[in-house]
Amino acid sequence: MLSVRNISxxxxxxxxxxDVSFDVGRGRLTGxxxxxxxxxxxxxxxxxGVLRPDSGSVTLxxxxxxxxxxxxxxxxxxERGLYPKMEIGxxxxxxxxxxxxxxxxxxxxxxxxxxxxxxxxxxxxxLEALSLGNQQRVQVAxxxxxxxxxxxxxxxxxxxxxxxxxxxxxxxxxxxARGVPVLFSSHQLDVVERLCDDLVIIAGGKVRAAGxxxxxxxxxxxxxxxxxxxxxxxxxxxIPGVTVDELAGxxxxxxxxxxxxxxxxxSAVDRGTVTSFRPVRPTLGEIFRDIVVNAPAGAEExxxxx
Length: 306
Prior knowledge:
Layout: E1 2-11, E2 14-24, E3 29-33, H1 40-47, E4 55-60, E5 63-64, H2 67-70, E6 73-76, H3 88-97, H4 103-116, H5 132-144, E7 150-154, H6 162-177, E8 182-185, H7 189-195, E9 198-203, E10 206-212, H8 213-219, E11 224-229, E12 243-248, E13 251-255, H9 258-271, E14 274-279, H10 284-293
Parallel strand pairs: 3-8, 3-9, 6-7, 7-8
Antiparallel strand pairs: 1-2, 1-4, 4-5, 9-10, 11-13, 11-14, 12-13
Helix pairs in contact: 3-4
């Protein structure tokens, strides 16, 4: 398990990351989301040892993360970090060899990843000759080519079309299935919701919510309900303790404590056939927006270094 405990980092007088703690379990895909300047990239750089935290610690399976452990990390930065005039197949093999992998194995690993990511026919092309989306796929391959023990990815789906997103998701999920802790950030909350096992939401340099995806959805569900039946539902407005959010034909969305919701259901059964009655659970996007809106003033102030 990769564990981040109470790490903080300031630039000048501005505290960019403030007492951040979370875990990335082995075999778990952990989404790391926050607005611009929330502290995501700074946190990732501290995990990778690129920046030194002012306080706190990062451990892997209980041991401090030092240079030996970092050698086994895979990292995909948000910005382009490869050689534009180098053939992509040669480049991936070179990066693998930097991790002590022999030439034949390094070449094969690079080709296997290019095959998986739909780029094997472009292996002799220079990176600069590829579209931005295909360059992003090569960035993903570069993070994976040495078969890392831990995978850290900053906006891995940026610039990818839906088909490419599915290809990248499949490759990342395979690594997680082998027990690799995977931490990835993304502004594409629909992809995060589909992919992640766990979620960390950061705003203003502080973790505002963290935990297993479905547990967080339960936690933020509140008391919102959906009723569908075979007749008009306007009568729901007259039930004490009910606040109607939306009426659309035979469907009502409303807020109510469980006792009032039970009264709605009983009344609906008396009036006709109920086709659906359920609590409404929020999407991760709705949870994120609610947390960011309720963060302290200035929490989303953009900081260049973050």
